[in-house]
């Protein structure tokens, strides 16, 4: 079970860091998407920080379980919020990746709890 946890954790952390990097570069695609979703540019630093903290907490959680569970709960809330923002503007296509990442975050909670 721990191997599954480690694989999901590393995968999620890599995705989070890539996403945070794209947000920090303020690419046109990301900027347009955030504008469409109604996310103010002033929130970008918070979103980037949340993704980096989630990745770091998930990795640290491999050694200290409670930190991993807390990080996974935070990531679940982060991605559930992303789903809500996408659905609020009728962007079902954009909501799909956020739904998958929400489910992966929930899986992290379960896997970390099962390996305590």
From TrEMBL:
Its main location: membrane. The keyword Membrane applies. The keyword Transcription regulation does not apply. Keywords: Membrane, Transmembrane, Transmembrane helix. InterPro entries: DoxX. The chain crosses the membrane at residues 44-64, 69-89, 95-114. It holds the Pfam family DoxX_2. It is a multi-pass membrane protein. It is found in: Membrane. This is DoxX family protein.
